[in-house]
Task: inverse folding
């Protein structure tokens, strides 16, 4: 058994909870009633797009080892001026712009599929890791995309609760921090709320680009694995959890001494969908000004067959 297997051997699990063939995990909680509950929270009809720019001139923020998005124009006005392209004879003179990108599916605001991480040879719900070879035949992002995500969501602005614009490198967020943040916001957390947590750490990129975000070593703030925390996620029936960081958790866990143990605890054990690298600043400002931290959230991943993740541009409607 691996070290992470030892750490998580008694961790809560949802394997079999939604049936032996389930591949969407806690998204099963988002019933039509939950969608209507989310819609009922809409007061103004104002929309906040939570996706980051793709192909940012300053360089996209990507996990170490991944290549930032590359964007090329296949056709633009320059091609016509250079005589390399001609309008199609039947178009009557219409010219077109066309482009292509090369990118990691998890190289921007994105969802992790339930097959994104595993340990000891087994994915969520007991599927063998061999099902990932050549593309995920089990727990792929296409299963989530076919279903779609919509329902009630809340923002927990932990940074603002702590009186700061952003949390420090490697700073731990505890379950008590989440609960006290909700209390300070006058927010009652309900079962099946999708949970978005603001650390403010992305402001380092806004101010100083990739160099300031990474510093000497990538060390993001966030939650980390404790049995109590994962039991709370399970009891609350949280369908989706997202943050404004690349990894959604403390990079080096101060409780386990391992790298990102919350991913296997939430994804592999609970079947919980993670949303990473969310742009939460505009939404957080609105929430703080109006004291309205509850909203309708919809997330639509691409139907990438067998994909381990997908870019998304989630919409929070307040």
Result:
């Amino acid at each position: 058994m691996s070290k992470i297997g030892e750490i998580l051997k008694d961790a809560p699990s949802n394997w079999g909870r939604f049936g032996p063939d389930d591949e969407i995990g806690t998204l099963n909680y988002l019933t039509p009633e939950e969608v209507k509950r989310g819609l009922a929270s809409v007061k103004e009809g104002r929309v906040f797009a939570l996706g980051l720019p793709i192909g940012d001139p300053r360089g996209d923020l990507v996990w170490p080892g991944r290549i930032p998005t590359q964007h090329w124009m296949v056709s633009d006005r320059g091609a016509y001026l250079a005589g390399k392209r001609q309008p199609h004879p039947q178009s009557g003179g219409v010219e077109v712009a066309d482009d292509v990108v090369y990118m990691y599916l998890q190289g921007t605001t994105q969802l992790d599929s339930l097959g994104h991480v595993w340990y000891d040879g087994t994915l969520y719900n007991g599927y063998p890791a061999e099902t990932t070879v050549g593309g995920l035949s089990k727990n792929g992002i296409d299963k989530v995309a076919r279903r779609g995500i919509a329902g009630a969501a809340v923002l927990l602005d932990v940074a603002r609760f702590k009186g700061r614009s952003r949390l420090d490198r490697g700073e731990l967020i505890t379950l008590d921090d989440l609960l006290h943040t909700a209390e300070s916001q006058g927010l009652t957390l309900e079962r099946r709320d999708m949970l978005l947590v603001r650390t403010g750490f992305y402001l380092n990129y806004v101010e100083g680009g990739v160099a300031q975000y990474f510093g000497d070593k990538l060390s993001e703030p966030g939650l980390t694995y404790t049995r109590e925390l994962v039991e709370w996620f399970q009891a609350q029936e949280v369908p989706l959890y997202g943050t404004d960081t690349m990894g959604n958790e403390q990079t080096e866990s101060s409780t386990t001494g391992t790298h990102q143990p919350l991913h296997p605890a939430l994804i592999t054990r609970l079947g919980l969908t993670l949303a990473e690298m969310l742009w939460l600043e505009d939404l957080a400002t609105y929430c703080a000004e109006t004291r309205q931290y509850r909203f309708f959230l919809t997330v639509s991943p691409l139907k990438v067959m067998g994909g381990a993740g997908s870019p998304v541009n989630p919409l929070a409607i307040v």
